[in-house]
Queue: 3 jobs
Job 1
Amino acid sequence: MLPRMEHPRDPHSVAASAAARPGPAERPGDAPFMVIEPLRRTAPVVFASPHSGRRYPETLLAQTRLTLQSLRRSEDAFVDELFAGAAAHGAPVLCATVARAFVDLNRDPTELDPDMFHDGPPRGGFPLSPRVQAGLGAIPRIAGDGDEIYRRRLPIAEAERRLATVHRPYHAMLETLVAETQALFGCAILIDCHSMPSCARGPQAPDIVLGDRFGASCHPELTAFVEQTLRGMGYKVIRNAPFAGGHTTQTYGRPRAGVHALQIELDRGLYLQERSLTRSGAFSKVRADMTRLAEALAAAPPWADRLV
């Protein structure tokens, strides 16, 4: 725990017991996220897993041309479980519950492909980002294996409904968690948790890629600390290539304002049988290591006061 942050400014303003806080939902089980709350917030850290959702709404299944297993290729499978232990070290963990193939929570909501919709959005309304052009906008056109998801074009109202019921509530909660953390401790560290396919990286690729948008979203000493901690566990770690950070790090990372956002991408081969999307024998080790990372972030680095 950071020495100057050992006693939060208002310890009664956060949850007093460990619990999973569900998001808003029209029906039980439909919440777009849940929050794993610590017994007491004692660390200036928030963990978020936007791509590990495993709920596939019926509307998507009725519209897709793919099997459920093909849709699941888009998931950061079980990443929420890998980082859930952070709650034992005083940090909340925000977990998406809805599948990335339905709506991508690490995209700007304006990143929509006009060719996906039969009635909009208008061409030229927003610049088409490389992600949208690749089929990976806020409403993805392709799944993780590169196959087209839909049989036919969608109504724009469908995109708007998904953004309103999933994307906006998730980010409203993330904003709340970051603001609460900064109010308690004077700064906030957001760790945005992801995984990457082994086959996309080559034989000499690292185990973990840290993305801080080339220093724009996170204090360099914090990035270095996370890198050194992971290297000390035996992982090969690089920064910003090929993943420098997405919508989350770009939106929330404001180091000069005391909010630091760092993306972490884990090689799925470290913990997952990628073909079957089942946990491998090494899953428990990787989960324990990510809990150790959370513990290290909750401890007292000598440079911590410079994060405020």
Note: Residues 1-18 have pLDDT under 50 and may be disordered.
Job 2
Amino acid sequence: MNYNHLFSSVVSRSKASAIRELLKVISRPGIISFAGGLPDPALFPTQEIQNIFDTLLTQNPKEALQYGSTEGQDKLKQELVRLVKETENISITPEQILVVSASQQALDMSARMFVNPGDSIITACPTYLGALQAFQVAGADILGVASDHDGVLVDDLKAKLDLLKQQGKPCKFIYLVPDFQNPTGTTIPQDRREQILALAKEYNTFILEDSPYRQVRFEGTAPRTFYELDGGQGNVITLFTFSKIFVPGFRLGFIVGPADVIRKFVILKQAMDLCSSPTLQLATAEFLRRGLLQNHIKRMIEVYRQKRDLMIKTLQECMPEGVSWTHPQGGLFLWLTLPKHMDATQLLPKAIENKVAYVAGVDFYPDGNVLNDLRLNFSYSTPQQMVEGLKRLAQTIKDNL
């Protein structure tokens, strides 16, 4: 049976994730990988989770093992209301929250919710490739905004919004990862956030704010979220996830937005998976109720800060002249730029031969037109692996300058 003539147009717009495909290639022993966005498994709160599951399945098995509501378990949503108030000074009601299967589902749902094929959206350039995947599958026309060490440039954002207005094309939304951006590690300062939000209001669009690990900050003062700056006026929808700040295997996150928009999201999710796992939602709610999350994050911050510092120190010691990198104030990623004549994609097989891996930066650009960048993850490797892996990478770059 040949299925080619039966596939939908969505399939033709879909392409494999560069990271997921790469992880399959580099799984063999001996390769040191900076490719994935993997938390350090040594930090997983295994004992606490085991205790919570024992309690949950002993005291409340019927609720834990039954279907749940599409909106999310009430116990979890109540904890989320408290969490965002305590950590972000955001006051919301449970009706403004939808529990989802981590940020990737939220991105997919956002694309389905707002994008028809050919509709225009704006992203940073570069930006998170999982978001680009979701938007491309929906058929979005993606315009990338130039960025510097403080994130997207306001003047270029205004120019792109003006261009769409002149063409008679509304901008459906502006997608941003404002804190420790994936992939660059940069953070948008508060004054620039205020200017960006003002532009969104002026051009009658909204900001889709992706906040996967905002609390994992090593230094400096956190700017206010776009959602808080907006003051509940409905110009921002924010995506949160527990994948990076708790455990990725639970695949849990949540969308915060206007109640009427959340109701539309709920209808969409009903057709997708009915509900996210009640068992994992209730376990997460109990983890939050016991006050365990903030101590867990504090431990992550201490370990990841040391790893970031080690990565930067090792890069300074071993990288050749002409190679530069960002200095993230938090998060999990660092962005490395090679000399302009080098192609990180062509260099990757040679790096893998030297038993080290990274993600080429080209897949983080909407137009795929910048070739000399690459992303490094510093959260997963042990210190010994990090030093050895960066030495191998530096030697690979030197050999191919």
Note: The two ends are 48 Å apart (CA to CA).
Job 3
Amino acid sequence: MEKTKIGFDAGKIWQMLMEKGELKVTDLKKMSKMDIKDVYMALGWLAREGKVHFFQLENEFAVCLSD
């Protein structure tokens, strides 16, 4: 996968988190209509930049923007 696509996907997820706040990863997948592997690569990109925080929400993996 090329870096440009991962960066684009990361921007899309970042925007959804700005609008919605915290989201379960499964909800991110549904809302973004991305494959789960693309969601996780984009989240990895955002995590590397220190822009997201991961936690458990209702027994699922969730994410929100860092403070």
Note: The mean pLDDT is 95.
